Amino acid sequence: MEKIEKLNHSKVLEISNIKKEPKWMTDFRLNSYNKFEELKNPSFGPSFNIDFDLITYYKNIVDSVKNNWKQVNKQVKNTFDEIGLIDAEKKYLDGVGAQFDSVTVYHNMIKELEDKNVIFCDTDTALKKHPKLFKEYFNNLVKYDENKYTALNSAVWSGGTFIYIPPNTKIDRPLQSYFRINSKNMGQFERTIIIVDEGSSLHYMEGCTAPTYTSDSLHAAVVEIYVKKNAKCRYTTIQNWSTDVYNLVTKRAIVEENGLMEWIDGNIGSKVNMKYPCCILNGKGAKGNCISIAVATTNQIQDAGAKMIHLAPNTTSNIISKSIATKGGNATYRGLVRISKKAVNSTSTVKCDTIIIDDESKSDTIPTNIVENDSSFIEHEATVAKISKEKLFYLMSRGITEEKAKELIIMGFVDRFREELPMEYAVELNHLLKNYF
Predict the structure, then answer these.
(1) Is residue 17 classed exposed, middle or buried when 0-12, 13-18 and 19+ CB atoms within 10 A define those classes?
(2) Which DSSP symbol is given to 95?
(3) Phi/psi of residue 193, each to 5°?
(4) Are strands 187-188 and 347-356 parallel, antiparallel or unpaired?
(5) Which helix or strand (DSSP H or E) is residue 79 part of?
């Protein structure tokens, strides 16, 4: 059995030394570790207990990031090939990054983007090659001391994605990163920073998987996104972590004047999932959207939702949340909308729909809605239902089996989410959902 080294100051220093980081980053990591030791688990969300002494905090099986799949370790390449990432890169994407446990093993993008001065690399490379830009945006939106898991990420972060889109630059096809936890008791702590400059647009996609083990793993990522004036960013996630992974992530975007941030968030797997993508609407006319699904089955807790913070006039936000609980799972929507005093003439719409498949499953809707001026409004709607016996009877009377009838109802329920995905990813989502029912 592989020996697990407990996290301490020496381990944090070792990670920084292996990466040959500047002193300011080493000091940042050590300060973050001190805060991690000080903080308790967050008071919000479900209760859980992680034995941090049983987590592997850094593991590297490659010597450098490759830009040609033929140069990637055969076992690692085969893993991503089986997932379908290599084929998707050829057909649908302008660039791909692939992380295996703690480090990025592959990263590449088409030459046309290089000619446009787009930066798309792993975050460790960005620290080395673009230090000024990196330092300007690192630890600005998500502070290391916000909670125990932002502190942990800041202490041991490794890998992740760094993207900079120059002004007035359009990306024709998505960029994608794929994160794979492949080892038992593994902790993955990537750090993603995305800057979409004025008048530009980006669609970034993220996939996540892990094999199932008998012991727990931990995924605690931090994502910081900057959407400048008149810019647009769409961030699509389909996570299918195995049911032994704690997925505790912090994702936040700040949106300037007339900018648009869209979170398309699919949560299919994990043991405990806590994820609330956030938009800070900081500029006049800024918009934020979040469309999500969360599926909870046996021994799974999906505690997901969104946060919309309105700080400027004429800002708009929309949250659409679809939750499904089956076979004893717990699918909960937890969200926050706050319209500040200065955000006059602003609007927010929240719609939460849940289907509970059986009597053993559970779902809650826990919204916090705050309006601090009298010219703005929030509209909140929530529904909870079981699969209608009448609908099942109607479909079965047409010769459809009960299992297929349930599948059709579920697919119709999540249709609003699926239509936001590229066709090939909608097909994959269908495949994942069918495995649950």
Answers:
(1) exposed
(2) E
(3) -130, 125
(4) unpaired
(5) helix 74-83
DSSP string, 279-307: EEE-STT-EEEEEEEEEE-TT-EEEE--E
Quote the pTM value.
0.92
Torsions phi, psi for 34 (to 5 deg)? -60, -40
232-240 and 260-267 as β-strands: parallel, antiparallel, unpaired? Answer: parallel
Closest CA to 192 of 269, 94, 277: 277
**pLDDT tens, per residue, the chain with 437 residues:** 445 668 999 999 999 999 999 999 999 999 999 999 999 988 888 888 899 999 999 988 777 888 888 888 888 888 888 878 888 778 778 888 888 888 888 888 888 888 999 999 999 999 999 999 999 999 999 999 999 999 999 999 999 999 999 999 999 888 998 888 888 889 999 999 999 999 999 999 998 777 666 578 899 999 999 999 999 999 999 888 888 899 999 999 999 999 999 999 988 888 999 999 999 999 999 999 999 999 999 889 999 999 999 999 999 999 999 998 988 999 999 999 999 999 999 999 999 999 888 889 898 899 999 999 999 999 999 888 887 677 777 777 878 887 777 777 777 777 877 777 776 667 667 766 766 66
Closest CA to 192 of 278, 122, 277: 122
Torsion angle, alpha carbons of 340, 347, 257, 141, to 10? 50
Structure-token pair, residue 260: 């648009």
Return the structure tokens found at 345.
Answer: 């003439």
Cβ within 8 Å of residue 209, ≥6 positions away: 83, 178, 180, 181, 240, 241, 242, 269
Rounded to the nearest 10 degrees, the angle between the axes of helix 148-156 and helix 9-18 is 50
Domains in the chain: boundaries: 9-275, 389-437
Q: Which residue has the tokens 């905090």?
A: 57
Q: Which helix (H) or strand (E) holds 369?
A: strand 362-371
Report how far residue 290's alpha carbon sits from residue 269's, in angstroms, rounded to the nearest whole number.
19
Report CA dihedral (424, 425, 430, 432) to the nearest 10 degrees: 130
- Cα separation, 14 vs 20, in Å, equals 10
What is the torsional sign of CA 414, 415, 419, 422? positive
Distance from C-alpha of 41 to C-alpha of 405, rounded to nearest angstrom: 42
